[in-house]
Design goal:
The structure is a single chain. Helix content is 53%, strand content 8%. It is built from two helices and two strands. It has a two-stranded antiparallel sheet. It is rod-shaped, with a radius of gyration of 23 Å. InterPro entries: SMIM1. Keywords: Membrane, Transmembrane, Transmembrane helix.
């Protein structure tokens, strides 16, 4: 059974996207950028680097906080 409306597209997971962007020329700059930065190897690398940066920020904040809380007077 074929869809009647050409703007309705079915993905391989059986989800329906109505009015989805079908070509890269129609995609906005932000959609292209987020597609590039959130998918593939680059997206995985950026998520890993973001996770490591977040870990170190929390670690350093905890260390400094613990230092001042437990500092001998």
């Amino acid at each position: 059974m074929e869809p009647q409306d050409p703007s309705v597209q079915y993905s391989r997971w059986e989800e329906v996207s109505v009015g989805a962007v079908s070509s890269p020329e129609e995609a906005s700059c932000w959609q292209r950028l987020s597609g590039k930065l959130c998918a593939g190897r680059l997206g995985l690398t950026l998520r890993m680097l973001g996770g490591l940066a977040l870990f170190w920020v929390i670690f350093i904040l905890g260390y400094v906080t613990g230092y001042f809380i437990h500092k001998c007077k």
